[in-house]
Give the backbone structure.
Amino acid sequence: MSNPKSIEYLERENANFLERVEELKERLRNLEELLKKERESSGEYARRLEQLNKSLIEKGELVSNLKKQLEKLKNMGMLRFLWFKLTRR
């Protein structure tokens, strides 16, 4: 067994700690890179979701306009029907 107070023992312990610190720094760098990629990905998803929402709103407006035009056409058809009934054509 090594003497915990010897210089060799303390140097080995110091080297082990420094090695462990370097390993932890490397893991931290890897995690930071993963976090960066995840943030970029979530930002892209947010942009795509915003685009899809805008597209959905536009399509909703188009459907609304089509419904209005359909109602106008129905009303015009009813008026024509009444006109023909009244004029007996």
